[in-house]
Specification:
The chain is α/β, with parallel strands linked by helices and 446 residues long. 57% of the residues lie in helices and 9% in strands.
């Protein structure tokens, strides 16, 4: 989970502050010392840490904080605001060319996931009504063109190639003509990377830039490389001039130092973050939402957006009617669990909900949740239509038959039926306006 280590440490610091009725300057000094150590351990740039801590300390010692009725909460508010500012303040959206045709030049070192990210960006643009074409300008890495073609096919975006041509700028120029001729409105240019920044790489990128005049140059960096990612951003920006950063593998980086340092050091915003392998695992970066997650305040806006993307309004209304008529079946339950899986799994959702115990979220394996869904599906599909409609008739012999048909033990069938019953009770409360559910037991390990 991104920022897991930093989040745990900061929440530990604030828990101590909340335990004090009155805060003294010594309390704040001690808290800031722990915050500083937590940020350094998270691999945040030293100068960035110093500036951040000094700013938080100065504002926390102000009369508005010290004289308030809840000084600890005020300190947390200051930290939240400063974290948000550190990561860029507001969401920096991808911009489009006013002439109606946009070119995005994707650059970065080898191994950052640049080619895969090209496909994810194409998928994001298609979802927003654009018609993207991909262009293969990495003429050095073995199978780079083949990889982009596979990626392009997976997201339904055409790929322009000129096999045998070793001049990336010539390929990009022809791709630009082809894309405009065929009515595409976006060209995403995948370029070659190197193990390190060198003159040959930069000269090549400058030639491509001159030929296609990109609307934005997007640097792809690997979050797990920490300050090396920040140094790469500095190098590319100094030599090429970048417009934004796409940070991949943020879901695998428990420290998060690169994400907290890069905007302050380079002045360039993070526009997207990669949070998985799938085509839709590219999210717009929202500093204020990320700050909320780090401080344990959740991220309800992202949760709502995911729900809106995954849920069909008509289906939701139909399910509600079934609840009211007491007609919610195991088929409906399976469909709802599928929707949760599409939203990233329950572990990811727990991370976005304010006030949820982080240990609960840690206990949920995202890969396991997908496996569990397959097991649930096998059990339900092994039932007769009548059994799915009315699980109350599932006696011992029926459960034994379903176990043999699904390849799952009877204990899993019992657990599934129990979760289904709990889901019915909980959803009936919501459908009937009965208030909040008292638990999340339906989401626990299957």
């Amino acid at each position: 989970m991104a920022f897991e280590s930093l989040s745990d440490k900061l929440q530990g610091v604030f828990k101590k502050l909340k335990g004090k009725a009155v805060l003294t300057e010594a309390d704040i000094n001690e808290a800031m010392r722990e915050v500083k150590l937590a940020l350094l351990e998270a691999d945040v740039n030293f100068k960035v840490v110093k500036g951040f801590v000094d700013s938080v300390k100065e504002k926390s010692l102000g009369s508005d904080v010290m004289k308030s009725l809840t000084p600890a909460q005020q300190v947390i508010k200051v930290v939240n605001e400063e974290l948000t500012a550190l990561m860029g303040g507001a969401n920096s959206k991808l911009t489009y060319s006013p002439r109606g045709f946009s070119v995005y030049l994707m650059v970065g070192l080898q191994g950052t996931g640049k080619t895969t990210t090209c496909g994810k960006l194409a998928a994001h643009l298609k979802k927003n009504g654009k018609k993207p074409m991909l262009c293969a300008c990495d003429v050095y890495r073995p199978a780079a063109i083949d990889q982009l073609e596979v990626v392009g096919k997976s997201v339904g975006a055409p790929v322009f190639t000129m096999r045998g041509c070793m001049q990336p700028e010539a390929i990009a120029k022809e791709a630009l003509k082809e894309a405009e001729l065929k009515g595409y409105d976006v060209l995403i240019v995948d370029t070659a990377g190197r193990l390190q920044i060198d003159d040959e790489l930069m000269e090549e990128l400058v030639r491509v830039k001159k030929e296609v005049k990109p609307h934005e140059i997007l640097l792809v960096v690997d979050a797990m490389t920490g300050q090396d990612a920040v140094n790469a951003a500095i190098g590319f920006n100094d030599r090429l001039g970048i417009d934004g950063i796409i940070m991949t593998k943020l879901d695998g980086d428990t420290r998060g130092g690169a994400a907290l340092s890069v905007k302050k050091v380079t002045g360039k915003p993070i526009k997207f973050i990669g949070v998985g392998e799938k085509a839709d695992a590219l999210e717009q970066f929202h500093p204020e939402r990320m700050a909320g997650r780090i401080l344990g305040m959740g991220d309800m806006m992202s949760l709502i957006e995911k729900a809106q993307e995954s849920y069909d309004d008509e289906k939701a209304a139909e399910i509600e009617k079934k609840f009211r008529r007491n007609e919610f079946t195991l088929d409906d339950f399976l469909e709802q669990m599928g929707q949760i899986k599409n939203m990233g799994g329950i572990g990811k959702l727990l991370d976005m909900i304010p006030g949820v115990n982080k240990n609960a979220a840690k206990g949920v394996d995202l890969d396991e949740s997908e496996k569990e869904f397959v097991q649930m599906e096998a059990i339900i599909l092994s039932m007769t239509r009548e059994e799915r409609k009315n699980p109350q008739i599932l006696n011992a012999s029926r459960r034994k038959r379903i176990s043999a048909g699904s390849g799952q033990p009877v204990s899993r069938i019992n657990t599934l039926v129990k979760r289904y019953d709990e889901a019915r009770k909980m959803m009936k409360q919501f459908a009937g306006g009965g208030g909040k559910s008292r638990g999340n037991r339906m989401f626990r390990g299957f």
